[in-house]
């Protein structure tokens, strides 16, 4: 998983022996994480818009 720590992107994971592993995130992982975050945000916005329009229809 890619997270942001102190302004830097780091890749965190677990080794085969269940120890935490942190390393510098490579560009591919950073872009994938940003893409996933953007998709999640878009889903949340769409759900909010649907709820608002549903509430407006119910009020009318």
Polypeptide structure, described:
The chain has 60 residues and is α+β, with helices and mostly antiparallel strands. It has one domain (2-59). It has one helix spanning 27-59, and strands spanning 2-5, 8-14, 20-24. A 3-stranded antiparallel beta sheet has the order 1-2-3. It is elongated, with a radius of gyration of 18 Å.
Beta-strand content estimate? 25-35%
User: Could you give the count of β-strands?
Assistant: 3
Shape: elongated
Question: How many whole angstroms does the radius of gyration measure?
Answer: 18 Å
Question: How much helix, percentage-wise, in residues?
Answer: 55-70%
Q: Which structural class should the secondary elements be placed in?
A: alpha+beta
Total of domains: 1
Low-confidence stretches: none
> What kind of oligomer do you see?
single chain
Main β-sheet, in a few words?
Answer: 3 strands, antiparallel
The mean pLDDT is: 81
- N-to-C terminal Cα separation, in Å? 45 Å
Series of H and E elements: EEEH
Strand order of the largest sheet: 1-2-3
Number of helices: 1
Write the layout of secondary structure elements.
Layout (H helix, E strand, L loop, with lengths): L1 E4 L2 E7 L5 E5 L2 H33 L1
Antiparallel strand pairs: 1-2, 2-3
Keywords:
60 residues, alpha+beta, three-stranded antiparallel beta sheet, 1 helix, 3 strands, 55% helix
């Amino acid at each position: 998983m890619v997270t942001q720590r102190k302004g830097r992107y780091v890749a965190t994971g677990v080794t085969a022996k269940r120890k935490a592993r942190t390393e510098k995130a490579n560009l591919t992982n950073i872009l994938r994480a940003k893409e996933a975050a953007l998709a999640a945000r878009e889903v949340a916005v769409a759900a909010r818009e649907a709820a608002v329009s549903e509430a407006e229809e119910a009020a009318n």
